Amino acid sequence: MNKFEEKTIDTEVIYKGKIVQLQVDSVTLPDGQTSKRELIKHPGAVAVIALTDEGKIVFVEQYRKALEKSIVEIPAGKLETGEKPEITALRELEEETGYTTDQLKLVTSFYTSPGFADELVHLYFTDQVKPLEQKVDLDEDEFVELQELTLQEAEQLALDQKIHDAKTAFALLYLKLRGETR
Questions:
Q1: Has 140 been annotated as catalytic?
Q2: Do 16 and 77 share a domain, yes or no?
Q3: Which of 2, 28, 88, 124 minimizes the number of CB atoms within 10 Å of its CB?
Q4: Residues 36 and 51 both lie in one domain
């Protein structure tokens, strides 16, 4: 047993939605005391760092209701039940950007907010994008605008808090460490 492990005594599901489930777990702490943990269960997601032939990074701008503002992000989306992450990544790249690729490389996977959620994001990279011959429709409740930016332009948007999410910040760090400077 892990010395920090919290044993679940009971789980109460508060809400089960299309994307997340909210639950409250009663737990026994390592010192024997009990406590409550409010948790969000999430099916996981993917995100794609995509570079054009000109070395520009492919982004989408979209409104995020939780933030009450639009932000610029790398293409991303939720895993569907039973779907492999690389299939989701290709689907989201095509739907959101109009680009496709034959080459996706897994960069890493990371948890977005491990203090209360189990969402795991699988981050992919491609520098081999090509326009789709026929556009793929977005989800019916999704509205995005394509943006292609240099790393410097994207860094400025991060400073201006137009890029304001962890997956996209991680993507910029990855590109910077990789030596992308265009």
A1: yes
A2: no
A3: 2
A4: no
